[in-house]
């Protein structure tokens, strides 16, 4: 049962960071579209900048600390003889 809980937390964490990136991209899209000026909604701009910094820090942390090989892919490769 522990493996299932850990897997669910990993999925929820990945989903959260994808949503953070989507909010940052949506903000940039609307600014590029000219829907509003970042200075007009300073509180929103600061919030999105904080999210962007948090996402960049998370991405840097993951790139340095996560093993790039999936155990299932390694097993499959060994099973096929590669």
N→C terminal distance:
33 Å
String of helices and strands: HHH
Structural class: mainly alpha
Helix content: over 70%
Question: Which value, in Å, is the CA radius of gyration?
Answer: 19 Å
Total number of distinct structural domains = 1
Strand content: under 5%
Approximate shape: elongated
* Number of strand elements: 0
Low-confidence segments, ≥5 residues, pLDDT <50?
none
* Average pLDDT level: 88
Summarize the main sheet: none
Number of helices: 3
Structure summarized in a few sentences:
The protein is an all-alpha fold and 82 residues long. It is built from three helices and no strands. Helix 1 packs across helix 2.
Description:
The chain is mostly helical and 82 residues long. The protein has one domain (2-80). The protein is built from three helices and no strands. The protein has helices spanning 2-33, 42-65, 71-80. α1 crosses α2. The longest helix has 32 residues, at 2-33. The protein is elongated and about 60 Å long. The two termini are 33 Å apart. The mean pLDDT is 88.
Task: Describe the secondary structure blueprint for this structure.
Layout (H helix, E strand, L loop, with lengths): L1 H32 L8 H24 L5 H10 L2
Supply database-style keywords.
3 helices; 82 residues; mainly alpha
């Amino acid at each position: 049962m522990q493996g299932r809980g850990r897997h669910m937390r990993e999925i929820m964490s990945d989903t959260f960071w994808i949503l953070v990136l989507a909010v940052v991209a949506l903000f940039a899209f609307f600014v590029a579209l000219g829907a509003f000026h970042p200075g007009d909604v300073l509180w929103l701009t600061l919030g999105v900048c904080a999210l962007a910094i948090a996402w960049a820090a998370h991405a840097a942390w993951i790139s340095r600390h996560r093993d790039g090989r999936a155990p299932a892919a390694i097993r499959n490769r060994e099973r096929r003889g590669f």
